[in-house]
Amino acid sequence: MGRTLYVTDLDGTLLNTHDRISPYSTRTINRLVEEGMLFTYATARSLVSASVVAKGLSTNIPVIVYNGAFIINPATGEMLSELYFQAEEIQKVRGLLMERQINPLVYAYVYGVEKLSWVTGTECEGCRHYLSRRPEDPRKRPLRDDRELYDGKVFYFTCIGEKEELQPVYDLLSRDGRFRCTLQRELYRPEFWLEIMPAKASKAEAVRALKKLWNCDRVVSFGDAVNDIPLFEESDECYAVANGVEELKARATGVIGSNEEDGVARWLAGHAEKYA
Predict the structure, then answer these.
(1) If 102 and its partner were Cys, which of 13, 49, 97, 179 is the partner (CB 3.0–4.6 Å)?
(2) What pTM, to 2 d.p., does this model score?
(3) Which residues pair with 42 in a beta bridge?
């Protein structure tokens, strides 16, 4: 049997409703990694945020963050793959958001340091909630105005708000081949999130690259939301957790236990013979 790469989403899939990986899941996955399982996670989170919620999980694995914009070795910080916007792409997004008075969170490397920038005083309730949950986040870069908002090597935009105000931007950019966009409701909140990435930034593209890097023949994946659909399409087997959305379940090989039931770890433990 060839080598298999196992990939899981974090929020709503491996993470429970307390935004943590249970001791059972952590213990089980670490043991299987030590036994030779090729495992990683693919998340919309940054490495900073993912490292907090995945504390205790093996760091001997490259991880996929920002929905595939980066593949990073968390133990060393080494970038194995990285994607950024071109200047004209940034101007396109900037003009569209200004026209509709939408205030984004802008993720970029500014003078070589990862930063999360926004204009203070423009935050919606959902944005304030997001920022308040990261009081010690070293990436935070509040600005007085937008003159420096798009500085550096920009790789990700997040806009938080009502679906009705974000949908037109999603529709326009989704038809532009230079961008990849997702629009979905925040997992445990009423707001919607519009995330804008370079066209080649996706969990599927990143998994394809990691599969080649690790010389794997197959991919088995796990997820819960619509942004996991590209990941499922790249997989030989794909499993939706019981709490996942119906649209994803319809594309899944099967449905496993929920994120509160350690569904991913229990499935992996029950298929341990595949890791030899």
Answers:
(1) 97
(2) 0.82
(3) 64
**How far apart are alpha carbons 186 and 18 in whole angstroms?**
15
User: 80 near 64, Cβ under 8 Å?
Assistant: no
pLDDT at 276: 47
Q: 161-166, long-range: CB within 8 Å, 24+ apart, which pairs?
A: 161/102, 161/124, 161/126, 161/191, 161/192, 161/194, 162/191, 162/192, 163/192, 165/100, 165/102, 166/102, 166/192, 166/194
Region 225-230: mean pLDDT is 89
In degrees, to the nearest 5, what angle opens at C-alpha 208 toward C-alphas 32 and 26?
A: 25
Segment 65-79 shows an average pLDDT of: 90
DSSP 42: B
What's the one-letter identity of residue 272?
Answer: A
Residue with tokens 């059972």: 24
Q: Which two tokens stand for residue 163?
A: 């679906």
CB 207 within 8 A of CB 214: no
- Cβ distance 218 to 2 under 8 Å? yes
How far is it, in rounded angstroms, from Cα 37 to Cα 5?
A: 8
